[in-house]
């Protein structure tokens, strides 16, 4: 068998294979629009395949007809002048009708999807208010009141029960942000002064990665979050534990850290449920120890990274609204020990 010329160059083959493998790595990404673990993401994915199908059909047919015309009607010796034609009613009718049908096949389901997800949320939907901040996310569970009578709040991690529709109302405390969890739903802008809505149903339990999808300043790329979709009972347990939250018994370093927390004014900006720390400038720190990351997932949640954050926040996230508080090493390690108790 003859080997095609391209395959006779091993280096090219190696490049081709590496490029293909590189493309494949994109498939495993946690922020993948091909996941479809939410009803909205799944429906949009269906539309996507329909569109790709229609585009492939058009592309392949046009190229095939073109190739046919090239070879069928190419100049042949002694064939003389080609025949001139003036219009062909059947052909013209066909190339009006076929594209119209294709446009309708694509447009009708798209239209229906837009209207389906634009409807008012069902009455059993969980109501959560999402507030975008430079550069972190606040989630307020309007259906559940904490011990102080205000809605429960979580920072940078949204907890949802699986299979129940969730009605998000979004706004921003400063500039325009965009809430996006590719595996669950489409994007929704969070604007200052205007409320937008996003309703979807998470279909599978798991941890889903989200990301601000609208440029919102220096640390926009570090404005990430996670959605934890839990079995219904586990979600209820989370709500109950949050409603009854109090500081665990503190001793040693952790006890000292709680003193530093109050003395250094952390409580002016941060809330810890069940304590006198009621600040609302920064994320609610209740349960920070069980979070996947710190500073809107800019860093993993390890003692070393937490210490790095506390030592100089703007060095981790340019422009951070948490200032460098010039904490001493002792203060930092006491704070890290204290924060580790907030499960
Ligand atoms: C002037 C207000 C302010 C003060 C004071 C402040 N913080 Fe913050 N803090 C913030 C803001 C705003 C963020 C969010 C920054 C970001 O992610 O961009 C933050 C983030 C954090 C985070 C990460 C939270 C998360 O959800 O990932 C921790 C932990 C934290 N602060 C601890 C502290 C401690 C401990 C102190 C006291 C030594 C303190 N902060 C003092 C405003 C403040
Ligand atoms: Cu943003």
What would you say this structure looks like, in words?
The protein is of the alpha+beta class. Among the domains are: 126-243, Immunoglobulin-like; 252-339, Immunoglobulin-like (Sandwich). Helix content is 38%, strand content 19%. It has helices spanning 10-25, 39-72, 89-118, 232-243, 252-263, 266-269, 303-311, 313-316, 329-339, and strands at residues 126-133, 136-145, 151-155, 157-161, 166-172, 177-180, 188-190, 196-200, 206-212, 224-230, 293-294, 299-300. Helix 2 runs antiparallel to helix 3 (89-118), helix 5 packs across helix 9 and helix 7 crosses helix 9 (329-339). The protein binds heme C and copper (II) ion. Copper (II) ion (CU) binds next to loops.
Let me know the number of strands: 12
Alpha-beta content class: alpha+beta
CATH architecture of one domain: Sandwich
CATH superfamily of one domain: Cupredoxins -  blue copper proteins
The biggest beta sheet reads: 5 strands, mixed
| Beta-strand share of residues | 15-25%
The H/E string reads: HHHEEEEEEEEEEHHHEEHHH
Count, helices: 9
The level 1 CATH classification of one domain is Mainly Beta
The radius of gyration computed from the alpha-carbon positions, rounded to a whole number of angstroms, is 28 Å
The ligands found in this model are: heme C, copper (II) ion
The order of strands across the largest sheet is 3-2-1-5-8
């Amino acid at each position: 068998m003859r080997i095609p010329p391209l395959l006779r160059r091993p280096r090219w083959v190696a490049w081709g294979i590496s490029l293909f493998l590189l493309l494949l790595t994109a498939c495993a990404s946690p922020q993948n629009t091909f996941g479809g673990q939410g009803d909205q993401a799944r429906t949009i994915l269906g539309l996507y395949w329909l569109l790709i199908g229609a585009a492939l059909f058009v592309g392949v047919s046009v190229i095939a007809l073109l190739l046919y015309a090239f070879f069928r009607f190419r100049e042949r010796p002694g064939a003389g002048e080609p025949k001139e034609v003036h219009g062909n009613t059947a052909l013209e009718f066909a190339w009006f009708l076929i594209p119209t049908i294709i446009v309708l096949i694509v447009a009708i389901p798209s239209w229906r999807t837009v209207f389906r997800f634009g409807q008012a949320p069902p009455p059993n939907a969980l109501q959560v208010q999402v507030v975008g901040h430079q550069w972190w996310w606040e989630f307020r569970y309007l259906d559940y009141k904490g011990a102080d009578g205000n809605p429960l709040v979580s920072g940078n991690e949204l907890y949802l029960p699986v299979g129940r529709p969730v009605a998000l109302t979004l706004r921003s405390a400063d500039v325009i942000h965009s809430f996006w969890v590719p595996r669950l739903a489409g994007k929704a802008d969070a604007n200052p002064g205007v409320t937008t809505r996003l309703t979807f149903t998470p279909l599978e339990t798991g941890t889903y990665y989200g990301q601000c999808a609208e440029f919102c300043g220096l640390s926009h790329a570090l404005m990430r979050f996670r959605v934890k979709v839990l079995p219904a009972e586990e979600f209820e347990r989370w709500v109950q534990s949050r409603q009854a939250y109090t500081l665990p018994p503190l001793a040693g370093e952790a006890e000292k850290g709680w003193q530093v927390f109050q003395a250094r004014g952390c409580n002016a900006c941060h809330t810890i449920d069940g304590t006198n720390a009621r600040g609302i400038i920064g994320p609610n720190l209740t349960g920070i120890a069980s979070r996947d990351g710190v500073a809107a997932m800019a860093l993993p949640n390890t003692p070393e990274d937490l210490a790095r954050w506390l030592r100089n926040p703007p060095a981790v996230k340019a422009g951070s609204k948490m200032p460098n508080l010039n904490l001493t090493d002792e203060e930092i390690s006491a704070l890290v020990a204290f924060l580790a108790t907030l499960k």
